[in-house]
Design brief:
4 strands, alpha+beta, four-stranded antiparallel sheet
Amino acid sequence: MSSITLPDIRPTTSKNSKTLNLRLNRVEGDLEIRVEVENNTVTDAWSAGTMYRGFENILRNRAALDSLVITPRICGICSTAHLLAAAKALDAISGVEVPANAIRMRNIALMAELLQSDIRQTFLMFTPDLINDIYSDKPGYEQAFSKYQPFKGSMAIEAVKYTKSILEIVAIIGGQWPHSSYMISRRTCIDRQ
């Protein structure tokens, strides 16, 4: 497995300028964010996914329709987005015009999944950083801890409960969630006159 990296920019500091190199790898793969700050203002920023994951190789020498079953299984959080990418590729290859109702159903499922993803990313992935021990002497820490503690905090529990109900939309449209495989060209939904 190969890796893509940006040129090494070490954190530097001068009187009015500094460059920060942040390596993030909480969910899937690695992400690098570099931010240049001058006089407390961000003047430039870069981001790069630094790990080649090679999912494309899984589909080599497979039947085209296999992509509708395999690609949603790449991720348990955003399986609909991967399914839609595969379906759109098949739509383009086959030259079919996707019925308007099929597009609507795809979009509703995608929007529901996006909403749950944003909620989960915020309350399960990001907010735990707010209760890092380095903040334990700050005002509001104990309140934040009771809300954002992984798996136990009130907001973490609410996020999981709430997003389950959102995902019922995807399950109703796609037959299940995660890993639905319902987006088949010309068969997803029929336009009615």
